[in-house]
UniProtKB/TrEMBL annotation:
The keyword Signal applies. One of its GO terms (molecular function) is serine-type endopeptidase inhibitor activity. Belongs to the serpin family. Residues 1-20 form the signal peptide. Keywords: Glycoprotein, Signal. This is Alpha-1-antitrypsin homolog. Coiled coil: none annotated. It comes from Mastacembelus armatus.
Amino acid sequence: MRGIFASCALAALLLSAAWADHQHHHDHSSEHSHEGELSCHKLSSPNADFAFALYKSLNAQTAAGKNIFYSPLGISTALSMLSTGASGETHSQLFSSLGYSTLNQTQVNEAYEHLFHMMGHSQEAQQLEVGNGVAVRTDFSPLEKFLKDAMHFYSGEIFKVDFAKPDEAAAEINRFIASKTHDKIKDMVKDLDPSMAMVLINYVYFRGQWEKPFDGNHTHKADFHVDKTTTVKVDMMKRMGRYDFYHDTDNHTTVIMVPYKGNTSMMIVLPDEGKMKEVEGFINKDYIRHWHNKLYRNSVELFLPKFSISADAVLDHSLKEMGITDAFENSADFSGMSDSIKLKVSKVSHQAVLSVDETGTEAAAATTIEIMPMSMPININVNRPFLAFILEHSTRSILFMGKISNPTAA
Ligand SMILES: *[C@@H]1O[C@H](CO)[C@@H](O)[C@H](O)[C@H]1NC(C)=O
Ligand SMILES: *[C@@H]1O[C@H](CO)[C@@H](O)[C@H](O)[C@H]1NC(C)=O
Ligand SMILES: *[C@@H]1O[C@H](CO)[C@@H](O)[C@H](O)[C@H]1NC(C)=O
Ligand SMILES: *[C@@H]1O[C@H](CO)[C@@H](O)[C@H](O)[C@H]1NC(C)=O
């Protein structure tokens, strides 16, 4: 042990806020075909694998009937920023768990830079903000290169806080997070350790507007079946329209894409009654791709609950289970952050919020008229636990994903 300050801790705090409204859809495949292999698309496949590996771990720790919701992109981003300061085994564990073993740090950094750039083209109807922050102890100077990389590649904002006054430091970090999440996440940080050296912060804020809003006049009270014996009342929205949909009989699942304005959609994966466990057991990025390819446009009468959930998670256990262990131990090698002080990660926490309602924005709900063929619409009733994925198409990212077991649970 060469460090004298072995108790100095580095906390990576990950958080995200989603704010979703829904509706609309267009075909994005044509936008992809002429783009070629974009730098940020290198991340798409490993990030999706990471997202599902994390799901499996979180799900195993989550009590039945509890919601799971997180931002895979946010977590991958924060760990990648962390890896810019890591070396040796600490670095290889991060890279291999993230699925980046065939890439080097420069390629990953550049891919994220490109991704932030693409996402920066925020459309008027869609707000998508992804970025990072680094709160640094007033009397601690991280290596210049780490701070430069965080700023340059990860849209990181660096600010100094006085961890010797933990309450003030927490308040300051919470103010930063609240401002970046438009007050959706306010009290993320509490009980800071006065020996903290740095806090890494990631945020993802998404506020979408359905391409085709629901008509609030059709929202009604209805039953949602949490499980065989538990039923809760939800505000059920209803909309008849043309949606991309697929019913996979073999795999007991109905999939529907509900598009937001811009380049994002919510993909709803609704297992047949009693089949959630089975579907969660096999789901991975290949199923998502398969279903995505099989989607076809149909008349649908869609029933979707209106809800708002918040989920937080301490990710330490899951990340360790996924092979990121050294980062948390005294053997951690963050020599790319500091050559004088030994650092390790003390805690990785994450919070994500999701709101789904008829429009999602205060903007007037413009009515869209669709030409309906003269056929009976398919009825899709999201009245039981489902999986939801908020997908960003231009960068092929999973912004958020989760399992909504009970829309009325806080
Ligand atoms: C990273 O990989 C790229 C492409 O293979 C290569 O050009 C570059 O020199 C590598 N950078 C480092 C720092 O190893
Ligand atoms: C809801 O119903 C009211 C009263 O019938 C009507 O004025 C309003 O336009 C309806 N809203 C929408 C979005 O259609
Ligand atoms: C069920 O999933 C498997 C694996 O992705 C796939 O090969 C098969 O085609 C799916 N079944 C249907 C009806 O789509
Ligand atoms: C979708 O993404 C493409 C590629 O980044 C961008 O050029 C386009 O403006 C985006 N469209 C919308 C509606 O956001």
